[in-house]
Amino acid sequence: MTLDTAPRIADPDALFTLLVDAHAGLDAEASRRLDAKLVLLLANHIGDIEVVKQAVEAARLFPPPPAGEGESEARAVYR
Asked: Measured between alpha carbons, how far is 52 from 50 in angstroms, rounded to an integer?
């Protein structure tokens, strides 16, 4: 299986808000733990280490560009 990077999230802004809101009230360490737990849960859901490796490589090599004028941070990821 290969990593599918085609946009498939119907409302990326809502997802971005959900992820940001999940960190509300957390200190830096708790925020990092939340991110780690989320990554592990999603990696388990994917269930294929090769796909997870591809996602890690993509995330490290291709950081999202800054949002353009009138564009949300979530939508900038898909450019």
From this structure: 5
